[in-house]
Specification:
2 domains; globular; MFS_Transporters; membrane; transmembrane; two-stranded parallel ribbon; 71% helix; peptide transmembrane transporter activity; PTR2_symporter_CS
Length: 423
């Protein structure tokens, strides 16, 4: 049932190649992102508001360019050439970050390379399996672990190098990570499917599918709610990172915890929380208690809002908070994230009409793009408000998203099981 011969760990060998390639690409992305706001405010001496806008614009572009890159890969380059080209461009951009005068061109270079790379790698997973292979469902779970392993290691390695030895060392390590991913991908090409080499050939098939009106309205309103939600959620690498520097007592005995290490908590907690949360949802489903996705997402947004209320309460104390409180914040935020973001992506994929799956998922990335821009604008208020009031503002933004999603849930219920979760 495996198209490419041989298996590793009970899965096609090609999945391990994609897993490791993805892990190192995520290492490079999150390693650079962990340093970005500190580098702008400490090394480049940019104002906090300016740095926030740059951060928001960059993270937004990281989700916008894949929409265009996927079209280029499908129609012109093919998946493999898109990955090799995009990965090479990204590695170049990371190394460019080691030179201060190339800061803005480097960010643009990374975003362009990411556009080619990001949509092409996971789209090869299905090609590894025959249509009726039951392992394909678990393959995406395995692949997603690579995202979180890379995201966990990056701040520990790149962040420590950048914070203790110089920012250019951290950016250089991110570039080396991207180069390592490319080497693994090129080495493992013999384990990947042949069809990934060539652009897709357009077929004269049935007329293009169209969205039912109620489904289209549902997806648009969910996308708007997620855009609002990300205005609060995306502060983790922006203003929350700044607060970790000035508002947190990072001493652990005689040692001081590097501020970038806290960026590793979110991916670590995703890995730890996901299995028991999935098991709990499965037991509820077996008992017939299945919540509609919009309601589950509303709960997640409320939980994230609660995490920011915690930070606001800590700020009112007037003294630096112990670092364990910041760890608790990340635990609460990650728990809420697991209710809203994976659920939203699954909702978009499930409601896509036949033949419009990629387009529908691209719309999810478009909402992420808009939300990241909104987060950059929200972040500019950090220097103009009391920090406790600012965190309450973030809680209110997350609460507004929760209210929107709760209203959407009421609408979704009008067309029955269309929006129901699968097991």
């Amino acid at each position: 049932m495996t198209k490419s011969g041989g298996t590793w760990f009970g899965q096609p060998k090609g999945l391990t190649v994609l897993f490791l390639t993805n892990m190192w690409e995520q290492f490079s992305y999150y390693g650079m992102r962990a340093l970005l706001v500190y580098y702008m405010t400490r090394q480049l001496m940019l104002g906090q508001g300016h740095a926030s806008l740059v951060y928001g614009t960059y993270t937004a572009c990281a989700y916008f360019t894949p929409i265009l890159g996927g079209v280029i890969a499908d129609r012109f380059l093919g998946k493999r050439r898109a990955i090799v080209t995009g990965g090479s461009i990204m590695a170049l951009g990371h190394f460019m970050m080691t030179f201060e005068p190339l800061f803005y061109p480097a960010l643009a270079t990374i975003a362009v390379g990411n556009g080619l790379f990001l949509p092409s790698l996971p789209s090869q997973i299905d090609d590894l399996y025959e249509r009726d292979d039951p392992r394909v469902g678990w393959a995406y779970n395995v692949y997603y672990v690579g995202v979180n392993i890379g995201g966990f290691l990056a701040p520990l390695i790149c962040g420590t190098l950048g914070e203790l030895y110089g920012w250019h060392w951290g950016f250089g390590a991110a570039g080396i990570g991207m180069a390592a991913g490319l080497v693994i991908y090129l080495w493992g090409q013999r384990h990947l499917p042949e069809q990934a080499r060539h652009p897709a050939v357009e077929r004269h098939a049935a007329p293009r599918a169209r969205f039912p009106r109620h489904t289209l309205l549902l997806l648009i309103t969910v996308a708007l709610a997620v855009t609002v939600f990300r205005g609060a959620y995306e502060q983790v690498g922006n203003t929350v990172a700044l607060w970790a520097d000035v508002g947190v007592d990072r001493h652990a005995g005689a040692a001081t915890i590097p501020m970038t290490w806290f960026q590793s908590l979110n991916p670590l907690l995703v890995m730890l929380m996901t299995p028991p949360l999935l098991a709990w949802w499965r037991r509820r489903a077996e008992a017939g208690r299945i919540e509609r996705p919009a309601r589950k997402m509303a709960l997640g947004a409320l939980v994230v809002g609660g995490a920011y209320v915690l930070l606001a309460a800590l700020e009112t104390a007037g003294t630096p908070a112990h670092w364990l409180w910041l760890a608790l914040f990340f635990a609460i935020l990650t728990f809420g994230e697991l209710f809203i973001l994976p659920t939203g992506l699954g909702l978009f994929a499930r409601l896509a009409p036949e033949g419009l799956g990629a387009t529908t998922v691209a719309a999810w990335y478009l909402a992420t793009f808009a939300g990241s821009l909104f987060a950059g604008l929200v972040g500019t208020l950090w220097s103009d408000m009391a920090h406790s009031a600012y965190f309450l503002l973030l809680a209110a933004i997350a609460g507004a998203a929760a209210l929107m999603l709760q209203l959407i849930d009421g609408y979704a219920g009008t067309f029955g099981q269309t929006c129901r979760e699968s097991d």
